[in-house]
Amino acid sequence: MTTQPALKDYLQLHFIVLIWGFTAILGLLISIPAVELVFFRILLSILFLAVLLYVRKKKFSMPVPEMLKLMSTGALIAAHWILFFGAARVSTASICLAGMATSSLWTSLTEPLIRGRRISVLEIFLGLVVIVGLYVVFHFEFNHALGITMAIGSALLAALFSVINAGFTNKHDAFVITFYEMIGAFLTTGLFLPVYRYYLTDTQTLQLNPTLTDWLYIAILAGICTVYAYSLAVRLMKKFTAFAMNLTINLEPVYGIVLAFLFFGDAEKMTPGFYFGTVIILAAVLLYPVLKRNLSSLKLKRAAAKTS
Predict the structure, then answer these.
(1) Rounded distance, CA 288 to CA 308, Å?
(2) Among its keywords, does the record have Oxidoreductase (predicted)?
(3) Given this model, what pLDDT does residue 36 score?
């Protein structure tokens, strides 16, 4: 059960969305391919988390069924990251981030099924508005079809593990949750590497030799974008519904596109249709709290009218 979020919670949520908007930029700055990048990112994340948990004297132990659930969720996270960075590589950071905006629609469909609550017409409507915005982007940027398809798949997986994680937050510490999920993500990526090597690479070789600059960027991905931001997001799930969080995360393309333009300049310059579609997506994000508040007031007035 979520509690009413405070201003501090909203500021923290937007701060981690800003951090995540930077991940696609880091993914393009790192020279090794997406799968190898995810492998090293998760490995460093586990090491950072292990040290953090040891220093804070957090208990690692938990029932095996719970541990397996967390590790299974980690498998979804690994697949999400592989598709995310892959989308940025085959298209652009902006296209990747725009495709991720569909996570709110997926959440509006999956959260009621997994959490056992009623489907919200408002959430479905706003999710479809996001899809309209995405269609506009897709229509004007058709040459990036593969990238946007991979990004949509990544968004679906993000919605799933967000909804699932909401059920863990009242049982376990956020850093412990992240630790076991990273172990599951690491095992999943490790098992995927042979398949990736023999069937999805041109040379049938893995690039497991990051440069010193790569290691620096991967360390930032692991320490700030994963351990810090992801653990904070898990903690914020006590205050926000999965849909409210993922709808706010739709602002990630805005932060990411601005950062991408600052880093890559004309390489990230898109058509006017792309930005029009992005505005539609943003409208859905900004309308949600307004419409939800108005609908709640309308329901209260109707209830009061019936009792009078």
Answers:
(1) 30
(2) no
(3) 92
